[in-house]
Design goal:
This is Acyl-CoA dehydrogenase NM domain-like protein. GO terms for molecular function: acyl-CoA dehydrogenase activity; flavin adenine dinucleotide binding. It comes from Choiromyces venosus 120613-1. The protein is elongated. A five-stranded mixed β-sheet has the order 1-5-4-3-2. A four-stranded mixed β-sheet has the order 6-9-10-13. A four-stranded antiparallel β-sheet has the order 7-8-12-11, with no helix packed on it. The longest helix is centred in the last third of the chain and has 36 residues, at 348-383. Strand 7 and strand 8 (270-280) form a beta hairpin. It is α+β, with helices and mostly antiparallel strands. It contains 19 helices and 15 strands. It has four domains: 5-77, Flavocytochrome B2, Chain A, domain 1 (Roll); 103-207, no CATH class; 237-351, Butyryl-CoA Dehydrogenase, subunit A, domain 2 (Beta Barrel), CATH 2.40.110.10; 353-510, Butyryl-CoA Dehydrogenase, subunit A, domain 3 (Up-down Bundle), CATH 1.20.140.
Length: 511
Amino acid sequence: MATQTFTREQVSKNNNADSLHVIIDSKVYDLTDFADAHPGGVHVLLQVAGQDATSEFYSMHRHEILTKYSSMVTGTIQGETPQVIEPKAGDLCLIPYTEPMWLSPEFKSPYYDESHRRLQKEVRVFVDEFVRPEALRIEEAGERPSAEIIKRMADNGINAMRLGPGKHLDGYNLIGGIEPKKFNYFHELVLNQELVRTHGRACNDGFLGGMVIGLPPVLNFSRNAALRDRVMRECFSGEKSICLAVSEAFAGSDVAAIRTTAAKSADGTHYIVNGTKKWITNGSWADYFTTAVKTDKGYSVLLVERGEGVETEQIKTSYSSAAGTAFITFDNVKVPVENLLGKEHQGFPVIMSNFNHERWVMACASIRASRVVVEECLKWANQRKVFGKRLVDQPVIRGKLAKMISLVESGQSWLEAITYQMCNMTYQQQAKSLAGPIALLKNFITRAAHEIADESVQVFGGRGITKSGMGRVIENFHRTYKFDAVLGGSEEILGDLAVRQAFKNFPKSML
């Protein structure tokens, strides 16, 4: 970067196409050679040539653009210093309500200790430096995450940590220096909420979203220790990937309606699997499929390995192909009986026990993504001027911001209250007592996302429906927030589940 200094009078003389300089936050940019390549044309730049264009720039562009074109800085204004803080990897946002309350120095929390703060710091640096750049690349290109980023995550123990506390963490060096035996659900909550700050919904699923929901049944229900350990090792390392294959064209939230079948071979050594699965996250490239099937006396769950008779086809959805969403066909696939998860004909407990953690993870991610949207709206309302005033000076905009903030803070508080219960319950107790509360939590958070998505677009206007530029985070969220409202059990199903469970435990003495 050049160190030459200018006076504002000197800059003002460079006001034509042959010598075009502008001032942005006390830095002088030479745009002469760039003018013809400017997306808005040279005439837009000539309107501010030789002038301070700070206000105009920040009303049209994100700050990151300045980093991209830092080579065009030719000097600085004499006696002036930049007023806009250049964010560094790992930095917290200082704007109120843009971070969970426990991360603000003036507030206290009974849930988090120094290990959680250390983990948050290190994961945020990791996301800022490695995950978000990769996420933005694959979100746009629709590509699978690179093997390099998955290995980086594996080397930091992140892949194993995403399955929560347990013996599967033993032997791994965990980011943040967390001892495996002391890792709890609040550590996992912190990890989930930091990983989702990528500004891309599909890539969040692309980063082993299928493993988060597909591997737990193998760890918890496989009776073949050698198979379990091999699959766990391969998936945590990124050598292979796994997905959960339950949904079908015939059966979404209605799991009992699945039609994929598994019949024992004549010699009893294999199941022969036939059928299809649809909307399977990471299915396009998965090596293992944790698959719900109909057997002759009920439902079972099998671990199917990619091989002869297994075909996958990418499905185009409203978010990026970076998630690897797939339609899967099983055509006379031979699956060893040792790959049965749980007991034969008793697969529902295997499937249902997995839902609590899946829905809790989705709640963690959805409420943090909503907070990112709130951050974008707060920044935009402060810098955008309409009718001679900042947006935030308009009472109607302040009302929208208040609504969004209230929804995010409420969701986070409820999430933390349930997470505390998870930390003090066994896996079996969670399945019995938390299915209803977690279902309602996810229902509330995805309803909140609906409101936040709607209000944020109104705050951003046309930019909120534009895939690039200032509103791209808003556009992505508005286009994709519904995935959380449908996947893992739709809002309606979860609300009904919670109320039915409440009445199941209704005291007979109460009329």
